[in-house]
Amino acid sequence: MPIAWDRLGLARFRVVLDQDEAFFSDGTVCEDGFGECESLPIVAYGELEPGPEGPVFDAKAMARALHPTLPDHELETVCAVYGIPGRKGEAARVLGEAFVALVAEAVRLDREVVGLIARLEPEPLATLFARALLHKQIPEGDPTLGQEENAAGGELQPQEPPVAVGVDPFGPDGFVARELPSFEQRDGQIDMAHAVAATFREGGALVVEAGPGTGKTFAYLIPAIDRMARDETVRVAVSTRTKQLQEQLFVKDLPFLLGRMAPDLKAAILKGRQNYLCLRRWEIAVREFSEGLDRDRLHLLAPLARWLWETETGDIDENTAFLADPGGRELWRQLCDSHHHCIDSFCPQYEDCFSIGARRRARKARLVVVNHSLLLNDLVVDRMILGKYTHAVIDEAHALEETARSAFTWTLSARVVERLADELTPSRRRRFGWLRRLALPGNGDEVRRATDRVAALRTGTIRLFSVLGRSLPSEGRGPLPRLDADSAAALDRMRMTAGRLEESMQDLVDGIEDPELRREGEVHVASIRDLGGLAARLAAEPEEDTVRWYERERSGISLHITPLEVAPILERILYPALEAIVMTSATLSVDKDFDFVLRTLGLDVAFEDVDTKVVASPFSYEEHMRVCVPAAFPLLTEDADGYADELADLLAAMAGRLDRKGLVLFTSYQMLEAVRKRLPRRVTALAQGVDGPRSKLIERFRRLPRGVLLLGTDSFWEGVDLPGEELEYLVITRLPFAVPTDPIQAALGELTARSGRDPFLDMSLPRAVLRLRQGVGRLIRTQRDRGAVVLTDRRILSKGYGRAFAEALPARIEVFEASESLVEKIGEWFDEMR
């Protein structure tokens, strides 16, 4: 459709990018420029240096609003959407063509979407989108509208012709071999599939350690689908550690398998409700931001406008533009669904609610894909979210214990109380609150009383954490000592204030006839009751088999109550309702011994006989991997500065000699930062906590050329998949023992000792060995991968326990006296592979 550029105020505009300029007239390139152009509108990509006189249109902000689900919003990615080729030396011209395409996109979009974006964007984009409304719209039903629809809906109903149940899918004539060109028959995968099928058929528990490359996902999904196809009473929950693996299962693996095995079998994906946009809270946020003091934050909502119009799931993980902005991520807690804010059937958006729709689909599905956190939270509420299921698969089961301990932890912090108070009364950042919205006749005194008690709760919370800040030890985290008199008194006053506020709120709720306001008030009352109960628990004597601990963060101090052993909880609320359970991961045993995981997860008590199996990786590690240890490296515990100097020198030498991509795994952020600062400028390095969030770091690392380093701590030891040239060497800076002074680890050690076991041999060492295996597993991801592991902790050579780590490695250790010879040997090995 022709665009009237003059009506958009863009009859002529200048494009500026990377010190390059281009000029456009009526949307087309003007080769000769415009002469005097200081007052012309300027198009840039991201922020432009201050100083231009004309309005500056941020094309990147437009792209984020119009294409919020792109993998990223680099100019190259946006140009690919419109088929705009990159031209060397013409950066500004390419940006100008992309801007023209974005304007055309805005003109053709639905008027309601464009109007909403105009309301949310700042000037001058607000005016540009408002003027776009003047153009004639494309008729409804245009096939080009909504081209970015989400492929990962909440429910799968494949339509492929099925394969007869019983046909061996892994055999040479099976559909897996026929339809996956890269498929290679793997004995381990077949062995695991048979074991899973037997467990699903006969009942009981199976624990399978399946090394990288075994194809464990198909090895448990195919028997599960086969069993459900044979028996309509079987319902399966598949739980993963991460949402990323959830997406892979649901978007990639299940459509392929269900379409060929059981097209009528319904599968669904469900995440925690905080992943879904709440439509009621969205409307409240837009209204409050527009009318209150938060207008400067309206632009953070812009990437949600078109996505909200087109999404079928409301799952914020689809919206990369919103999540890429730190301000957006912080704002999400005001927009997401939450049991603290949900008013259920009283909500005017109840029928369109994304979260409720996802739960409905999950409860109707025969196979539901969840994550560990949701699985455990569902158990707490007696399976009210997922409904009953007869069989379960726990993938990445090595993380279940830690996730369960976190899921069953209670936390008190000033931030938690502040968020609750903000929902009730206006604050510095919010103009409205539940109490402000009440309009009952004659309730002025009750509202004032409740408002005063919210203020008292705010004040009491500030006083409590101020006292705690002075009385608690200065370490970042530690066991919570017995509270001194001032802290105990402040905590008790807070508990009593919460009790009085609960009474006032209940009185108000009892007099409300409006069902929406009443239900919302009931939820707030429940939250206040939980807060008072937690304060009472913290004031009382510690419960048995729990640890109380504090944590100092930038956001303030938080107090926690954490269960030490999760096995009794799982034995009580998970296992009894299951006919069969399969637990699998690449790391579950220590030297092929499963005693540690069986004990910590309670499987040895819950089941009379647990089948265990080790399925070896098909990778030839001795041929494809080198494991190197520099014997003369300083010990971190003896000379931290010398260790950091030596490590920085080693990394610089490897980056220069190898010219390949490397991942460096640390056990503390403090050492990561010390080494990062010591790296010479010629070394390109991305660091966790410095260069962006984890997911963005990994994506940037993928795109960068060879010779770059990625420095990461805890979360990078697992769940990082960088095959081939995306990762070719790995540096492990220290054997990954948990910090012994950590309050949870210290309490677990004491509990282990009380039970007659050795805290080091029976707890610390097995955990560290499993952690090391997880870290080393980041390197070789496919049959063709080659790579080197460098372990700079010589305790693996000098300490008696080093043998346990050495035997856990997939290739033998090569010892080098000097770091220089180590680097050269690895370089020669890579040269030979070329």
Description:
The protein has 834 residues and is of the alpha/beta class. Among the domains are: 12-132, no CATH class; 447-563, Fumarase C, Chain B, domain 1 (Orthogonal Bundle); 621-833, Rossmann fold (3-Layer(aba) Sandwich). The protein is 45% helix and 14% strand. The protein contains 33 helices and 24 strands. The strands form 4 sheets. An 8-stranded mixed β-sheet has the order 6-9-10-8-11-16-7-17, with helices on both faces. It has a 7-stranded parallel β-sheet with strand order 20-21-19-22-23-18-24, with helices on both faces. A hairpin with a 2-residue loop joins strand 1 (12-17) and strand 2. The chain is globular, with a radius of gyration of 29 Å. The two termini are 53 Å apart. The model is unreliable at 137-152 and 163-167 (pLDDT under 50).
Descriptive key words:
single chain; 834 residues; Fumarase C, Chain B, domain 1; 8-stranded mixed sheet; 7-stranded parallel sheet
Quick take:
By secondary structure, the protein is α/β, with parallel strands linked by helices. The model is unreliable at 137-152 and 163-167 (pLDDT under 50).
Mean pLDDT: 88
Q: What is the CATH T-level topology of the domain at 621-833?
A: Rossmann fold
CATH superfamily of the domain at 621-833: P-loop containing nucleotide triphosphate hydrolases
Secondary structural class:
alpha/beta
Q: What is the subunit arrangement here?
A: single chain
User: What level of helicity do the residues show?
Assistant: 40-55%
Largest sheet: 8 strands, mixed
